[in-house]
Amino acid sequence: MSRVVRQIGTMVFSDEDQQRFAVMSGDRNPMHMDPIVARRLITGRQVVHGIHVLVTALEFWCREQPDPLVSISCVFSNPVSVGDRVIFSQLDEAGQPTVLEAVVDGLPCARVTLTLAPESPVAGSGGIQAHVVGADERSLLERSAHPLDEEPRYHEGKRYALLLDHSDLSVHFPNVNRYLGQEVLASVLALSYVVGMVCPGLHSVFSSADFSLSNAAAADGSLRFAVRKYDPRFGLFDIRVDGPIQGAVKAFLRPPAQSQPSVQELVQHVRPQEFSGTKSLVIGGSRGLGELTAKILAAGAGASIITYAHGFKDACAVRDAINGFAPAHCQALHMDFYVDRFDSALIDWNSLDTVYFFATPRIFRKKADVFDTRLFQEFCDFYVAKFYELCSFLETTLTQRQMTVCLPSTVFVEERPKGMAEYAMAKAAAEVMAQEINRSFKRVAVLCTRLPRLSTDQTTSIVKLATGSNVQTLLPLVRSMQRPRAL
Q1: Are residues 210 and 230 in the same domain?
Q2: Are 155 and 38 in contact (CB under 8 A)?
Q3: Within a domain: 57
Q4: Mind listing the pLDDT tens digit for each residue in 36-47?
Q5: Are 55 and 76 spatial neighbours (Cβ–Cβ below 8 Å)?
Q6: Which H or E run contains 318?
Q7: Are the CB atoms for 90 and 61 separated by under 8 Å?
Q8: Is the pLDDT of residue 215 over 70?
Q9: The total number of structural domains that make up the chain
Q10: What is the CA radius of gyration of the chain?
Q11: How far is CA 229 from the centre of its chain?
Q12: CATH number (domain holding residue 135)
């Protein structure tokens, strides 16, 4: 049985592409549209709409003038990010449906199975009932620029209808529009709105779509849909759709961006004036564990400078929250490790008592191979080279005191999750370097502690895993960083 694989196109999705697709589909979920919001989500970067990847694959394929389509089934296995170079390929095997794949750096991100006439529909689409949502039962949706953020039970028993956008789609997808027709293409695009804006809405991850194209005669200018089943174990929605296309989509309810306790909530854990008179630099303090550290210090009357590379609004929010509790106890400072030099920062380094190194690149990455040399080098440049550069700078700059610098490590060094070899290896290398600094430097001492898996933007996942307590883990660390003083 012969199997033929050939490349049919490449695409690098830009922010402009995101904007155009949002206009066509109505899906303006922040994970697709806002790079700052997206960095706090599970992906860490702006995600290309899954349906955009699907339709782009069809656009390349439709150049081949294929036989009429019966059904389309698509599984989104990994997110495509803005700026990724996506390679689209066609897999043909005798007696089997045509398969299109979207791949980034060797990693499959979407797999589209096409069933052509006169073959029978693929498994999963043949069992779809002919009528999902009756015209007299539906709730007509007004398109909104803001995604819903409702509990899963909100959608139970509801039957929706979404009017299709009848704008000319041939400008952006001429091949698909000609081959499928305006009504069907508008329905496929509307699936993005269904998932990204309605159900699950704000906190959504598109998992799969499986639909037939044989129902166009029943079209009434709308796409009807309803939740058939919700599985709370995995946050998985099974949504039935009916209209010019007919079938099912599945989507996960992903964890929202992780929030840290307020300063007011931390007061009950910290002794009054415990950190009074201290000033700390928290590198990477605009979110996550850096944010929490600055708040712990403020709860004990300690001052801090928090740095950020991209999250200006996040840093300002943390600064304002701290200063609202303890006026003038927090400053926010831009510092990008990839660009800025330490000696150019507007910091009186000799006024600091401690430095916390919480800055980090994204730790969960898409990769096809067991080991990625470029990824390992990126982590080493950050956790080893940049940290050593910081300590070397402090060693030559400090004139009045010894300073303790916190280098958080991770239990992933010895309890390594699958696919995180490069991260764990770089963290292990940083631990060795910290030991060497402590042997050789006179004014800088490194406190390197392996932290358990904690609740941060970097560790969130679809299936929630047990984590340690952020506060109960960090508070002893912050205390150990301070010089002994009378309380």
Answers
A1: yes
A2: no
A3: yes
A4: 888 877 677 899
A5: no
A6: helix 312-325
A7: yes
A8: no
A9: 2
A10: 26
A11: 25
A12: 3.10.129.10
CB 175 within 8 A of CB 62: yes
- Are 239 and 92 contained in the same domain? yes
Domain of residue 447: give its range. Answer: 263-481
Q: What is the pLDDT of residues 408-441, one digit of tens each?
A: 999 999 988 888 899 999 999 999 999 999 999 9
Please answer whether residues 32 and 199 qualify as being in contact, where contact means their C-beta atoms are separated by less than 8 angstroms.
no
Packed helices 421-440 and 387-397: angle between N→C axes, nearest 10 degrees = 20
Q: Are residues 35 and 148 in the same domain?
A: yes
Which tokens in the block code for residue 147? 């995604």
| Residue 486 within any structural domain of the chain | no
Region class of 412: left (phi > 0), else alpha (psi between -120 and 50), else beta: alpha
Q: Closest Cα to residue 190, out of 170, 214, 215, 164?
A: 164
Amino acid 182 reads Q
Instruction: Tell me the two tokens of residue 285.
Output: 């303090």
**Is residue 487 assigned to a domain?**
no
Put simply, whether the predicted model's pTM sits higher than 0.70 gets the answer: yes
Q: Answer with the one of 253, 286, 315 that is the final residue of a domain.
A: 253
| Dihedral class, residue 139 (left if φ above 0, else alpha if ψ from -120 to 50, else beta) | beta
> Do residues 460 and 247 lie in contact, with contact meaning Cβ atoms separated by under 8 Å?
no
Average pLDDT (280-289) is 95
Q: Read off the pLDDT of residues 258-272 as tens digits, 9 standing for 90 and up.
A: 789 999 999 999 999
Question: For residue 306, is it within any domain?
Answer: yes
**400/431 same-domain check:** yes
Provide the β-strand partners of residue 86.
11, 104
Domain holding 443: CATH number?
Answer: 3.40.50.720
Together in a domain, 11 and 116: yes
- CB within 8 Å of 377: residues ≥ 6 apart: none
